[in-house]
Amino acid sequence: MFNNTSATLMLQTIMILMDKQNATDVTRFPSTFSEDAELERCYGNYGCFSKAYPWTENRPDNYFPATPENMGVRYFVFTRRNRKIPVLLLADDVDRIQNANIDPSGPFYIISHGFIEGGHKLWIENMANALLNLEGNDAATVIVLDWRGGAQPPYGQAVANIRLVGVMTAHLIHNIYEILGLSSLDNFHYIGHSLGAHLGGYCGHALQKKFNLKLGRITGLDPAAPYFSKTVTLVRLDRSDAKYVDIIHSNAMPLYLSGFGISEPIGHVDFYPNGGSTQPNCKSGKSQQSDGDDMYRNVVGYVSCNHERSHAYFTESISPSCPFLGIQCDSYESFLDGNCTSCDNKHYCIPMGYHSYNVYKRLQAGGLANSNSNIALYLMTGGTKPFCRVHYKVTLKVSNSNESNTHGPESGKLSITLIDRNNNKSDHIFLDDEQKYYKPGDIETRMVAVKDTGHPPLSVIVEWKYETNLFNPMTWRLLKSPSIYIEYLKLSSIEYNTDITVCPKMNKPVVAKLPTIMKTKYCKF
């Protein structure tokens, strides 16, 4: 019987074996030339594809692309006029493109799925509608790239197929460019998930090599790691493939831990939400199951929650509920420690997803962003929709007063709820996941992310959760009430660029199960 545990074990075993096959940097050549005499295969107008280096590097197997006829690649065109019944295009069918009634003013979006998926997926429909609904996008054209015929197992074959599909898509874009009489491809934005992200890289590369045209933008949604990690830029998506390449990493973990996404920064801007490896509410592994009863599909469906979150983030970012701001930092750990909380020349702030390019262009115009280098940004999200959160650096000072010292150290969990000027409350959030040991005089710093109320906070509700542990004497409270003496809380907002310090009224302690309101006017220094 298939279950979640066996699914994970099976996937991990497959990936570990692949990793071991891939453990040497030495290119494996056939023992005799006749074993693999054909090292190049040609596909008409789309050119020839090699199986020699670098296509052998860090890959346990190597295939030629399937033929265009076998893959059945199709392009479905949607606009505000035809949301339900699309116009069907083929890469080199010029007549269809001429009769598609595409608005030349654009913008143009190309959306691509990844491995064992297709253009019929709900996330693609949601993203297409969000793009078409965006204010000012009256003339927008969304092209859904459906290459499901080439996206089936084995994985190595699908990896080979995207090389050809990328060139085919370059032909389509070039034909649209010629037929509409466009001056450039600046208005073209390719959005690809997983293998579809690297497909966009091949498309961008082919446009430059064959037609001397450069895509305006490629967005990589958790680009696939297997067969692409630690390879040369020709093999994978990189920032040379478009004028602007932005990446959202959501599942950047080793293969044996069910990680599908690449960890290296490969774009002009790379976002690492929640560190880029695991996402909130994905620990259970619950995700939309793939169609059918195929075991392989169910395995991928089980482990894909983190991987899929990247396209959910991007879709929300088109019309976000808050700024969705990422901040530049040395690492996610440094970000969580509160070392990057000011948007300045040392820590650039860029919104994750759709609106990132506008900010990046302003940084470029000011000489602050170099197109030959990378900006890595970090942020926190929620675990449910809407995912967008605003960030606060919280500095907690445990009182060193006589009362606090007499009471002694405490072990428990502190939570806060922010209240703005309209008395709107944020969600209730703990500063630590587990009970923490606090002693008089301690100063603790944490980054927290809460739902945006629309304004910065003016006061804070603080609560103390106390749990006795029979095996930990520090949690025993026989005569004293479970409580903690807090001198102050300081909240520094990234999004609102504000700082407030709040204190308890008359230096009273925060008692377990008794919410305490702290305000600035209660502070006396």
UniProtKB/TrEMBL annotation:
Which SUPFAM superfamilies does its entry note?
A: alpha/beta-Hydrolases
Mind listing the GO biological process terms from this record? Answer: lipid catabolic process
* Binding sites annotated in the UniProt record for Ca(2+): R236, D238, D241
Subcellular location as annotated: Secreted
Instruction: Tell me which GO cellular component terms the UniProt record holds.
Output: extracellular space
Keywords on this record? Calcium, Disulfide bond, Metal-binding, Secreted
| Name recorded for this polypeptide | Pancreatic lipase-related protein 2-like
Q: Which organism is it from?
A: Galleria mellonella
